[in-house]
Specification:
single chain, 69% helix, 5 helices, mainly alpha
Length: 105
């Protein structure tokens, strides 16, 4: 019986019928995490599903990499628009993060 480890829906790739995006699995995989550690990070997934997702990626690397690049580009554009729409908020946010880092040291 064939299993479908990755499905395409809502303009994205998802691990089976879960809400875990293939993007999440692939970013972890490309950063050097093992399938076992990825499965521990996503308790809703089985180790088999993680391996299935990685296998899907390796078999469809070009199209998935294109999708990842488009997703990253869209995210950066939304981030830029958000920062431009409320620069004071982001200035205060950055200051709060810097302050927390100084206090936490």
């Amino acid at each position: 019986m064939d299993k479908e480890y990755v499905v395409q829906r809502d303009e994205g790739f998802w691990v089976g019928d879960t809400r875990v995006s293939l993007d999440s699995i692939i970013h972890a995989f490309l950063s050097g995490q093992t399938a076992e550690s990825i499965a521990q990070s996503f308790p809703v997934l089985t180790l088999e599903q993680v391996y299935g997702a990685i296998t899907f990626y390796l078999a469809n690397r070009k199209s998935v990499d294109t999708h990842l690049a488009m997703t990253e580009s869209a995210y950066e554009e939304m981030r830029r628009i958000s920062r431009e729409s409320d620069p004071m908020f982001y200035q205060k946010f950055s200051e709060a993060i810097r302050h927390k880092r100084v206090i936490g040291q």
